[in-house]
Amino acid sequence: MKWELIAGALLLSACASHDVQLPAPDPRLNSFFPSNYDQSVATFRQSCATLSGQTGPQGRGVCQSFPVPGTTPGELPLTIDSAFFAGGKGNRLLIVQSGIHGVEAPAGAAAQALLMREFLRPFLDRQIDVLLIHALDPWGFRHSRRTDQANVNLNRNFSLTADLYDDRTSTYGNYRSIFEPSGNVPWPWQGFLGISLDFLVAIAGDGFETRPIDLAFNQGQYEFPDGLNFGGHGPAIQVDYYLTHIKPIIDQPQYGKVLVLDFHTGLGDNAVLSIIKGKHPAQPLFTQFIASLNAPDNCTVTTDQGIAIRGPDCPDNFATDGDVIDFIPLLAPETPVLAVTAEYGTLGTDSWHQLDSVSRMILENQAHGGEDRCANPETCAAVRNDFRELFNPSDPAWQSQVMREAAFVFSRILADF
After folding, report:
1. Most CB within 10 Å of its CB: which of 60, 66, 247, 341?
2. Region 61-73 average pLDDT
3. Residues 308-325: pLDDT tens digits?
4. What gap in Å lies between CA 252 and CA 307, rounded to an integer?
């Protein structure tokens, strides 16, 4: 009987989800989505090479590849690739980066491809230089994981000091038996029911407050290397990449302001664009940016030209430790730098879909412990497919809407930045 009661309660909670009616898919827009890492990086490099000679007589385009570890023998090398386009008179800088969570990279890479094809020349003509950073976690992109090869969530790893990696204040350990279940990986629906029950029991024990377990799950932890949202015991190579390759570009005196868009997927209602701020967003750049998008101050969804946007002050949009959008402004302390997360939602924000999202992440991490953790290969395959669909949906309507939202954001930046 308890399972029926739990399922009934979750079904009722699902009614709170914001249902967005997606337009029909557009094959032209869907064509921007890469099928895998190797195709994506090849397309990015080819586009950069083609466009680097088209920035004008005073401009320049620079294409670079930065090697990272984790390549398996017989595979093409893993790299973080960048494309820097300067029109010659740029006094502002736009940075668009993708794939700090590898499995989320395709949508961000598609947005970058759209920008290069349709928006680069208008940006340069308006004296806005453009820096694109492709696949910050190439290993995760290739292997459809949110982490790098050491299970580090790179978006919990960015810090200028070692204090972050010594942090032992996370309450993750209080819920570790839920986040890291033992035994064989169950079939996805069985895992969902079991994890949902564990969460409901934990929430009841917390006085029916959901925030303690939300923070423990999402904030980042630095104790358990095999756990979820592990931030590492030291800086990953990506931190050095920003210090040696990105800081010299950002910290140039001609830039009066810098805007950084860090593309993600997963959080939020289906195809709704969430704008998430860091701990100390630059004002008034942040206010101007939100106003330009016609985004709400709270988490009300607004629709402008068919674009649904969630504002930055939703209760579930809380800042996390070691986030790259808090790190980048530190690279140019004398320049106004606004870095925000632009996240495309997939499943939903109601209790049912939030538990579904958490369940998929827990089961995928459990399955990553080895094929012997699954009762059979089909179970592991189903778990990994559900995980990919959470962060890289194959739905053509979703993909098309992501491109429409990216075009909307780029057009508003072009008009108001």
Report:
1. 341
2. 93
3. 888 888 877 777 899 999
4. 34
